[in-house]
Write a structure and sequence with these properties.
The chain has 104 residues and is mainly α. The protein has one domain: Tetratricopeptide repeat domain (Serine Threonine Protein Phosphatase 5, Tetratricopeptide repeat, Alpha Horseshoe). It contains six helices and no strands. The protein has helices spanning 2-15, 20-32, 36-49, 54-67, 70-86, 90-103. Helix 1 (2-15) runs antiparallel to helix 2 and helix 4 (54-67) runs parallel beside helix 6. It starts with a helix and ends with a helix.
Amino acid sequence: MKSDRIAQLKDFLENDPNDSFTRYALALEYAGKGEIQIALSLLLEVLERDPAYVPAYQQLGYQYLKLGRLSEAEQVLRRGIEVAREQNDPHAQREMQDALDELA
């Protein structure tokens, strides 16, 4: 089933390569399959194309944490908190701050 979702999301991206949500969802599917490097690449691409897409900061930070790449996780989460604050998204801001607090 997951392969079907990946294929479907890839089709959606072909039709609209600028759709941040679809690229983000594809990254989550790959992360769920354990294909973390592909997920990281997709999340980084989301942020390159759409630096205001808050969920990508959050998930990228979490993936870096899972990999033990703490410095990168901290940097991404801090930037995500700033963007969430700018967009008045206290929920995402709080979740990323909680993840940062666990690093301390």
